[in-house]
Write a structure and sequence with these properties.
alpha+beta; 2 helices; 6 strands; 38% strand; binds ligand 2BA
């Protein structure tokens, strides 16, 4: 058995949750925040059999799009302004960041 942790953009979370339910995957949705952009995103935790990992990854990949996001750099108050970029910078975010972890034990009481 594996634990899949998938960080996705909020815009894709309902679509992905629906697709997971439709395909009989059990999932928990957590509200999360990206460390870099400091924007809300959604983290899914999904426990499933090893044999189902490829189809789960297909579902995540199909339902999560990558998007351009503008980052406004914070001004360096009292700091060195030499390296400060005074305009928003575009970064590409997602589709999804996915970790697949082994599960030592699973209990469902
Ligand atoms: P954020 O940390 O807010 O990152 C959003 C996007 O900003 C990233 O998209 C990436 O394109 C860019 N980015 C992040 N850190 C950067 C840095 N140090 N320098 C330059 N650009 C940077 P994604 O890579 O698609 O990541 C989307 C979200 O997935 C992240 O949001 C974070 O919440 C999660 N994530 C990504 N990699 C992770 C990791 N290794 N561990 C835990 N969470 C991760």
């Amino acid at each position: 058995m594996k634990l899949v942790v998938a960080v996705v953009q909020d815009q894709d979370s309902n679509r992905l949750a629906g697709a997971l339910t439709k395909n009989n995957f059990r999932a928990t949705k957590l509200a999360s925040t990206g460390g870099f952009l400091r924007l809300g995103n959604t983290t899914f935790i999904i426990g499933t059999d090893d044999s189902l990992i490829p189809s789960l990854l297909d579902i995540i990949c199909y339902n999560c799009r990558s998007r351009e996001q503008l980052v406004s750099p914070v001004s360096p108050l009292g700091g060195n302004a030499d390296s400060y970029i005074p305009y928003p910078v575009e970064v590409e975010v997602g589709g999804a960041t996915v970790f697949v972890l082994p599960i030592e034990q699973f209990h469902h009481f």
